[in-house]
Design goal:
It is a single chain. A hairpin with a 2-residue loop joins strand 5 and strand 6. It contains 1 helix and 11 strands. The model has no long low-confidence stretch (mean pLDDT 92). The strands form 2 sheets. Strands 1-2-3-4-5-6-9-10-11 form a 9-stranded antiparallel beta sheet. A two-stranded antiparallel sheet has the order 7-8. It is an all-beta fold.
């Protein structure tokens, strides 16, 4: 099996996807994603930007996702800009393509994920944690890092939620 896939989005409405509509995502997507070399030398390259993003009651000016996967390596970035805050996240990881068709992250890494937030409105994350958190809001400031290498995991950083609220639906064990 060999093939390629190209996706071009111009003004695609997020809410037209039932799963995203259920999680209260709205906005217009523009961008391109290309998956080439399936079956022999897979390569994924793409960039998508969402304008006028609304997540539940929170508004975002723009959200930009970029991804590149080739030669056993994955690199991706997510930038979310609000009028008065932002979130920048980056992930770099090893990548295996099973039968040159299905991408898989190796269980023992390497994987490095970093995120930096400044006055980022937490309500944007609410639909992503809705199964365990009934209400999430406030402003997030901080830096976090996750590092997985050779089966060893390291986590570091500091995150502060200010002017915020977190209401758990059930008991959370930490």
């Amino acid at each position: 099996l060999e093939g390629s896939l190209k996706l071009r989005a111009r003004g695609f409405r997020l809410e037209s996807v039932p799963t995203l509509a259920d999680r209260q995502f709205r906005g217009l997507v523009n961008g391109d994603v290309a998956l080439d070399g399936l079956g022999y030398a897979p390569k994924l390259d793409g960039e998508l930007t969402v304008h006028g993003l609304e997540v539940a009651q929170a508004r975002v000016e723009t959200a930009r996702l970029a991804i590149e996967a080739e030669h056993g390596r994955l690199a991706s970035s997510l930038t979310v800009r609000q009028t008065d805050g932002y979130l920048d996240a980056r992930v770099e990881a090893g990548l295996e393509w099973q039968q040159n068709l299905v991408p898989k992250l190796p269980a023992k890494g390497p994987l490095v994920a970093r995120a930096h937030a400044k006055s980022f409105r937490a309500a944007v994350l609410q639909p992503l944690v809705r199964d365990t958190v009934s209400k999430l809001d406030g402003r997030i400031d901080g830096n976090v890092r996750l590092d997985v290498r050779g089966g060893k995991t390291g986590v570091g950083g500091k995150v502060e939620l200010r002017e915020g609220v977190i209401c758990a639906k059930r008991h959370i064990h930490m």
